[in-house]
From TrEMBL:
This is PucR family transcriptional regulator. The lineage of its organism: Bacteria, Bacillati, Actinomycetota, Actinomycetes, Mycobacteriales. Residues 1-31 are annotated as: Disordered. Residues 86-144 form the PucR C-terminal helix-turn-helix domain. InterPro entries: CdaR-like_regulators, PucR_C-HTH_dom, PucR_C-HTH_sf. PANTHER family: CARBOHYDRATE DIACID REGULATOR (PTHR33744), CONSERVED PROTEIN (PTHR33744:SF17).
C-alpha cells in the first residue's frame, strides 16, 4: 500500500516511478533464484564483518559468482565480442572514485571516451553509476569476479 505524500491533500498517494522499482524487482528475483539453488547454510563470525567486501567474502563462491554474472555478465559478453575494454574502464573508474578526469588521465584517454564507455556499462547493466547503491553493486560484483 502506498503512503500519503507529506503535505498533500488526504487521499493522495506517492507513486514510485517504474524505473526505480525495476531494480528492486530484479534484485528480489535474483535473490529468490539463488536461494532456491543454495542447499547449505552459511556461517560467518561477526569479527569477519568489518566491510562490504568482508561480508561478500563470507558468501559461498557459487552465490558470489551468480551475483557477479547477473550484475556484469552482459558487460563481460560485450567485451569478449567487441574488445571494447569496458571492464578495465569500469575498474579504473571505480578506483578513481567515479572521477571522469582521473580515469581519463590514468588510462590515457579523452574524458568523453570514458563517459561513453561508462555509459555503455550503465546501459548493459541497467545501473546508474552516479547512484551509490548501483555503484556498490557493481563494485562488489567486480570483487566477486576476483
Amino acid at each position: 500500500m502506498r503512503s500519503p505524500v507529506p503535505g498533500s491533500s488526504r487521499g493522495s498517494r506517492a507513486r514510485v516511478p517504474a524505473s526505480r522499482s525495476t531494480g528492486g524487482i530484479r534484485s528480489a528475483e535474483s535473490a529468490a533464484a539463488i536461494a532456491r539453488g543454495d542447499a547449505g547454510p552459511v556461517s560467518v563470525r561477526a569479527a569477519e564483518l568489518d566491510s562490504a567486501v568482508g561480508l561478500l567474502s563470507a558468501v559461498p563462491d557459487r552465490v558470489r559468482r551468480a551475483f557477479a554474472d547477473r550484475t556484469l555478465g552482459r558487460v563481460l559478453d560485450y567485451d569478449r565480442r567487441t574488445r571494447a575494454d569496458l571492464m578495465t574502464t569500469l575498474e579504473t573508474f571505480l578506483d578513481c572514485d567515479g572521477s571522469w578526469r582521473r580515469t581519463a588521465d590514468r588510462m590515457h584517454l579523452h574524458p568523453n571516451t570514458v563517459r561513453y564507455r561508462i555509459g555503455r556499462v550503465e546501459a548493459l547493466t541497467g545501473r546508474n553509476l552516479a547512484h551509490i547503491g548501483d555503484r556498490l553493486d557493481v563494485f562488489l560484483a567486480m570483487r566477486a569476479l576476483g
